[in-house]
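To: structure subgroup
Subject: Chain for Friday's discussion

All,

I'm putting the inputs and outputs inline so they're searchable in the archive.
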Amino acid sequence: MARFRPSLIPFLLGFLPLGATAVPARAQQTPAIQVNEVGANPGALAQADPTKPDLNQVGVNPGNPNLVGVNPGNPNPNQVGVNPGNQAQATPAPNQVEARPAPSGAASTEATDVPSLQPPIALGELAGKPIVRIDVVAVGDRWQSASPVTSVELGEPLSLDAARRAMRELLASGNFARASAEASLMPDGAALRIVVVPRRRIATIQLTGSALDRQDTLRAAGVSEDGDITATTLAGIGPRVRAFYAEHGYPAAAVMVRAVDTDDPSAIVLALNIEAGAPRVVSQRVFVVAPRADRELGALKDSYPLGAGARVDEPALADADREMTDLLRRSGFHYARVSHRLLAVGPNNYLYVYLEPGARIVPAFDGNRAFDDDALEAALGLGETTETKPSDLTDKLRSFYVARGFLDAEVTASLGGRPEDPVRYLTFTVRENEQVRVTKRVFPCLTGALSADDLGREIESFLEEDLPGEVFTLPDPRGVADLFGPTRGAGGRARPVELIPAMTYVPETYDRALKHVRDLYFSKGYLNASIGPVSVIRATCSRRSPPGACIPEPVAERVTAQCRTDALGLPLPEPPVPAALTCRPDPARHIACAPEVTLRIPVHPGPQTQLYDLAFEGNKGFCGQAGLSERDRTTCAEERPFSERWLSDIADLELGQPLSTLALDAARLRILDAYRDLGYAFAEVRAAIEPSPDRTRARARFIVSERDRVIVTGIVVKGAVRTDEQLILRRVLLREGAPFRQGQARLSEERIATLGPFSSVSIALEDPDIPQKNKRVIIHVVEQLPQYLNPAIGFSTGEGVRFAFEYGHRNIGGLAVGLTMRVQLSYLFEFMVVDPAARRHYQDLNDADQLERRNTISVTLPDIGLGPLVSLSLSGVDVRDNQLDFGFTKDALIPALTYRPRRAVTAQLAFSTELNKVDFFGESDAGKREILNQLRMPEGRTIALAQRVDASWDTRDTPFAATRGFLLSGGVEHVDAFDVFDSVGDTTSFPESHFLRFTGRVSGYIPLARRSGLTLALSLSGGYIQPLVTNSGTYPDRLFFLGGVDSLRSHLAESLYPEDGIEEARKVLPEGATLSTDDIPRGGTVMVNPRAELRVPLTDLLQLGLFLDAGNLWIRARNVNLDPRLLRYGLGAGLRVNTPIGPLAFDYGLNLAPRDELDEIDGALHFSVGLF
């Protein structure tokens, strides 16, 4: 072998220039092929000494140090290699950037310089030699086992391609982070040596004994679940964690790191056992501050967050310094600085906090007349910001004045005192000048679909949103004094400042508004519209003007609209307004300007572009590919996706209509969603407009970049600490080996969210920013606390004071089984019962019956074997409820099946077994008993068996105060009730009840103004009870009632008498008998209730409601008359206070037609939480 030593030529195969190694993109995936992937070590390049080989280098020939070998841990910068995915090219690709070497001794100034590819080292005499041995050598002391190479056979000629195939095979297994190749001459051929760096995937991390946050600890360790780890990184975890703990106050922390193998050879469990030890704590905190400054600080210095007993945590101390600095600056010490120093003396640690507050800056104002000092100080916001430079504060004050119409306001700041003074005054000198009003807007060259009024409304919507206004305006006291005050000696009166956003000019707000107007024209097909700029036309006041008035100086110049176009007919910008027409006040030159201005806003729409053609590029799709699934074959046969006709139908753009940029972008998004629903998760769609020369027609072209169809290779659940993962996975529509469809992902999110234990659910691809054909799906859930206890107190005019206590468990056994127990008690004070008859009845009740209750216990099973859309709930209910005419007690057991295919769609089938007791109030004389029998209203104890089917479709944005969307709901209930207790004896002619109860509601919410929040709410409710046998009665708890916040606000809760109540009662009583309201029970078998409400936002906190409620009840279906003139109407208004739990509503409804024979009240006041 000695004679072969000089000719032993180890060389590098499979690397790019300057020692870059081939690294797979992800475990268990084929490495990405990058022709121009490079790596460099500029620092080592200047220090390379070929005569002194690195002792740790693998493959170095000691006998010939000039030969180049491989060092996987520290590549030699002089090595040249090849990316194993691609054959090295001697000439760069056309789009390749070739980096030129810098002159000797010159440093490169380009941080992103890319070295040029060089040809691989020639194999020389090794080229073509048969490979007699293939060795795979693992670097490090972990995971040494390596599978043999099968893609290269013994006896095969040695070549660069053979080395690449060997490395590519090893990297494709996912068990190695890097690979390099060497070759050496053997007596009978060549030996190929593959040096690999093993890696493993971290399946899970077990962290025990951690005294610090888990995520922060793992971030410091540089590891994460599903991340990669090598022997080198494994060895560095312990030192990094110890350093992290030492920095946070645990200097004696001990860390033990273990990598535990699993059944999967490519995965490990990383166990980190941390013994934090005794923390280093602050023994004493000492403030170092000058005596004069200490007096100004006072107790403020005690706000420093950390003190004696706190852990010596350097990052926390640095944060405390920053927080204290911000606090001092917000408290007036604009130049404050805070720092700290730790001094360890034996076992004691002394924290010295150096406070350098500087002078306390006190704002002062001079010259302000329209606004007081408090308003200006609030405008500065000194207690909320750390931006305290005088120039910044001056800009804030000027912006404050300009937003309120003082366009000519001037503000200057001067800082008094000396730097060493403890208090210095920052004086703002204000020259307010007169308030400026916009009295007119002109739009030269305006043509097309929008009028000047339309543009004015669009602009004013921005002004109302950005600028301050007043809900209530105070009258001018001078006018009040002239009308009602004394005629002499009244003195002067200050004129209040009127804030009218529509008459205020703020350049920044107008710029935003004009951008919106420009977009509005683009959306209507005016793609070349020229909008703006705004020019201010303002008269100069004559020097002969009397005090407080302005006589405009005559101006010879005039401005006229030119409305010029270029050779293609496209609009050109208007020339600027002459300077003589724009006055700028200058007190030094005695130039005063008029307080009224006219804004000139050129609007030249230009030609309107019509859409005459659609074109598509890049729409290839998968229908021509082999191996399609049955679903894909069906889709291709029936829908013919990716064709121009299919894309045109999805785009849904009508030819011959104006080309709207908004509609074009919406069409682009629809095409993109269609592609993503077919599995093209990384598809991109661009829209381009190809106009005709005169811009009157245009073709819309959609350029599709499909990329690979993404196939799901696995589904991983993250965040499910307490919940069974299989329960979550059963609700996922995505499947391994199938395309990732966006629609299925969103629907799966909704299904998982209906389980209940999660506050948020998201489904996305792993590494969503990296396009790749095969991807894992990550389901990330955030669990709520499993148990909760919720005491509550409430009040309403219908129920009085209400107390509630609720306990719930959202996730029993990790199966999302929910348990809810709720106790609710309410008490209505007698003075709150306005109806005289109801008050008499209420006074006769004992205390136990006056206390209403609703106690429930329910168990919800989200998965009962009928699929993820069906759940089962079992509820027990105990209710005591007092109506105006009767008291009702119910004990019921209610199982219910719920089907929820979409978040907005719900259907339910419920079965109810009830023990009911109904007692009518007052004395039950023979007359009233006969009325109740004839009106089919039984009383007593019954057992009821009921089955109910409900369905709803709810698209409201919020159920408590909807501003958009709609609600459709309906239900039918079948009831069989039996008086098995013979509780009423022979007093009733129908001991059994059999009927159907139909209910329905339609509600819609229409936003009338997008920015202001003005909303019109409409609702129509109805109900009907159909007896199934002739002698069937309807128990009062199943009747329909009107009155109260939920129906007719002109009446008290459930107090409306049926329209035919008097007539039906008189038919029963003998002729001449006296009929009182006590004899007429409330409630009916037919009900209709239309409602309308206009919701007007006043401020962020307050809202005004104007409503019109209508409706009526009938006892007999034959008496129903839906003539609008026969409905009962309630007109009223209300004030709503927005709160986190919903709006608090105070409504008063006026009864437009009180019925004297029924002693109806003129109106009713209501309080409630939430709106219909």
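Points worth raising on Friday:
The chain is about 20% helix and 30% strand.
The radius of gyration is 41 Å.

D.
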